[in-house]
């Protein structure tokens, strides 16, 4: 048994609900039975310890049971969600997937066997150590997906500490470090994972109301969608005790408005990376974006404004890229931060920070100001290359009512004048129809021309 | 709405029209840029846009360029990039004064129009 404490822990919750899927409850005992029957399936299909197995689908009784059964078998799990569909072949090649279990919307499944043996030295090393593995793909908005190989026993080590059980919404995807964290944080504490068919605000709100969800781990983009859709007005969301948000910088304006509509929910910023896992964080004040990151198994430092992390739960390495760790195990996150004593504020990816004639502009700061304006529904700020200044600040805006472009630009510049430094005020404005949002509910900050 | 206005108009802009467009855009940029600085000086063709005596800083200049580009597109269906490598590699900068900018726009439009018609 690869992670003995985990299954022992799950076994003790017995008749408590582990999962709500398609509005039906599944107890820990039934999850356990499913794990046992999957281990039989593995024997029948010749799936063995040390093999790389893809689990394609979303959170469901079967996908979770397969996941647990594979850990138990000391397999190497490659979760893939629907959003990876277009690239699945390529991803499976990079991960050297030997078997794939593909789950449909009704949790029916099919198995695919690939004629392949694992050759990557890192994966082989993990197999030799007889450790269960996890391969996740970083969802970088530019360039190739990088495959991160984890020893999942190290990644899950932090869940040994028993935490309060909560009803948690499975918002973050199954193949995302945040989704994996949600899954195991919930199960290891005897909580209930409430799954949703899609991540639209209405679906999410309905699930929160129906199943008295207490914890919503989500993204700033989703919270912004929730605000502008105003669907929260139609549902009782008072069961929500806590909302965690991460994966991208939070506009201050969004944070403030969420606090207004959900005054009883505690808002907490998380910080995680595919490569190191999710760090615990403590906010300075409820409304504040200043946080203290860390936890026992994590160390952080800031070098030249960039956040570096060293973690016991760090991955072994990438399967298709050079190691991002230095000799001492530190990894440059690529995130720009501001430091104030023990607290930091995350400004965003360095690659997304706009450089106007040498002066740095975090897109989220500009977005936060623009979101306070009348008639601006959504906004994405990005850098547009400019021959004179290197880059200028550009904004793609979705409006509530039609407004002429030049009038809008004038209004934006006047509104921003006493709120932003001159170089941070958007110069290029484009009016677009609904905002580009990735399947992971993160903004797509690409400099594309609107018309 | 935007798409319609992008249809190129048949008649090329006259120099007078371009000058009027640049000057009114510049006035607009200056009025937005700062109320404290005194820009009561008349904006005219000889008004310098860069250098010691210019009416605006580099951000103002880029704002002017972007706005002129956007107005040419919105109001006249002319799609031009004014600030690029080419503009910067001119022997005489097109951004020295209002009139040098107007010259440059006029030249670019002359080059563009036959292409559009083809």
Structure in words:
The complex is a heterodimer of chains A (451) and B (118). Chain A is α/β, with parallel strands linked by helices and 451 residues long. Among the domains of chain A are: 4-156, 3-Layer(aba) Sandwich (Rossmann fold); 353-431, ANL, C-terminal domain (GMP Synthetase, Chain A, domain 3, 2-Layer Sandwich), CATH 3.30.300.30. In chain A, 27% of the residues lie in helices and 30% in strands. Chain A contains twelve helices and 26 strands. Chain A has helices at residues 4-11, 28-45, 61-72, 88-95, 121-128, 152-155, 177-188, 201-211, 220-229, 252-261, 363-370, 405-416, and strands spanning 17-21, 24-27, 52-56, 76-80, 99-103, 109-113, 133-137, 147-151, 167-169, 192-194, 215-218, 242-245, 266-269, 271-273, 277-283, 290-294, 298-303, 306-311, 317-318, 331-340, 343-349, 354-356, 359-361, 376-386, 390-399, 428-431. In chain A, strand 15 and strand 16 form a beta hairpin. In chain A, helix 2 packs across helix 3 (61-72) and helix 9 (220-229) crosses helix 10 (252-261). The longest helix of chain A is centred in the N-terminal third of the chain and has 18 residues, at 28-45. Chain A is globular and about 70 Å long. The N and C termini of chain A lie far apart (58 Å). The mean pLDDT of chain A is 90. The radius of gyration of chain B is 14 Å and the shape is globular. Chain B has one domain: ACP-like (Non-ribosomal Peptide Synthetase Peptidyl Carrier Protein, Chain A), CATH 1.10.1200.10. Chain B is mainly alpha-helical. Helices cover 56% and strands 0% of the residues of chain B. In chain B, helix 2 packs across helix 3. Chain A binds chain B through residues 356-357, 386-389, 392, 402, 405-406, 409-410, 413-414, 417, 422-423, 427-428, 431, 451, and chain B through 1-3, 6, 28, 32-33, 58-59, 61-63, 65-67, 70-71, 74, 83-85, 87-88.
């Amino acid at each position: 048994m690869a992670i003995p404490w985990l299954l022992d822990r799950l076994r003790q919750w017995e008749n408590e609900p582990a999962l709500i899927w398609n509005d039906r409850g599944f107890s820990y005992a039934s999850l356990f039975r499913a794990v046992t029957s999957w281990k039989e399936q593995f024997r029948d299909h010749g799936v063995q310890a040390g093999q790389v197995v893809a689990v394609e689908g979303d959170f469901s009784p079967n996908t979770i049971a397969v996941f647990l059964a594979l850990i138990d078998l000391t397999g190497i799990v490659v979760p893939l969600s629907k959003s990876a569909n277009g690239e699945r072949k390529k991803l499976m090649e990079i991960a050297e997937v030997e078997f794939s279990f593909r789950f449909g919307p009704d949790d029916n499944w099919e198995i695919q066997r690939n004629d392949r043996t694992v050759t990557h030295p890192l994966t082989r090393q993990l197999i030799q150590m007889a450790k269960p593995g996890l391969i996740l793909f970083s969802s970088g908005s530019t360039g190739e997906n990088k495959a991160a190989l984890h020893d999942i026993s190290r990644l899950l080590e932090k869940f040994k500490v028993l935490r309060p059980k909560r009803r948690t919404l499975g918002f973050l995807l199954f193949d995302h470090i945040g989704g994996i964290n949600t899954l195991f944080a919930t199960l290891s504490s005897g909580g209930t994972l409430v799954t949703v068919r899609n991540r639209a605000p209405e679906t999410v709100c309905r699930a929160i109301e129906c199943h008295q969800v207490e914890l919503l781990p989500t993204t700033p983009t989703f919270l912004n969608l929730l605000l502008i859709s105003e669907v929260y007005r139609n549902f009782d969301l008072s069961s929500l005790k806590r909302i965690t948000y991460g994966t991208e910088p939070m506009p201050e304006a969004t944070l403030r408005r969420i606090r207004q509509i959900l005054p009883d929910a505690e808002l907490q910023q998380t910080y995680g990376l595919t490569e190191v896992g999710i760090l615990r964080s403590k906010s300075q004040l409820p409304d504040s974006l200043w946080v203290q990151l860390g936890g026992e198994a994590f160390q952080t430092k800031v070098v030249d404004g960039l956040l570096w992390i060293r973690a016991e739960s760090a991955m072994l390495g990438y399967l298709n890229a050079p190691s991002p760790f230095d000799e001492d195990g530190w990894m440059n996150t690529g995130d720009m931060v501001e430091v104030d004593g023990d607290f930091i504020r995350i400004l965003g990816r360095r690659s997304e920070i706009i450089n106007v004639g040498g002066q740095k502009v975090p897109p989220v700061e500009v977005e936060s100001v623009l979101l306070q304006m009348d008639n601006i529904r959504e906004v994405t700020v990005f850098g547009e290359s400019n021959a004179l200044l290197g880059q200028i600040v550009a904004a793609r805006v979705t409006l509530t009512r039609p407004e002429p472009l030049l009038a809008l630009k004038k209004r934006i510049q006047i509104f921003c004048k006493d709120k932003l430094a001159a170089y941070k005020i958007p110069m290029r404005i484009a009016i677009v129809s609904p905002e580009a949002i990735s399947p992971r509910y993160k903004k797509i900050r690409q400099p594309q021309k609107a018309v | 709405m935007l798409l319609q206005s992008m249809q190129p108009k048949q008649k090329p802009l006259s120099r007078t029209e371009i000058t009027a467009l640049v000057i009114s855009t510049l006035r607009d940029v200056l009025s937005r840029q700062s109320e404290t600085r005194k820009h009561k000086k008349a904006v005219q063709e000889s008004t310098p846009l860069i250098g010691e005596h210019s009416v605006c800083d580099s951000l103002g200049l880029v704002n002017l360029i972007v706005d002129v580009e956007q107005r040419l597109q919105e109001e006249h269906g002319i799609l031009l990039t004014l600030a690029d490598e080419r503009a910067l590699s001119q022997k005489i900068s097109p951004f020295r004064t209002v009139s040098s900018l107007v010259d440059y726009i006029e030249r670019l439009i002359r080059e563009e129009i036959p292409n559009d018609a083809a």
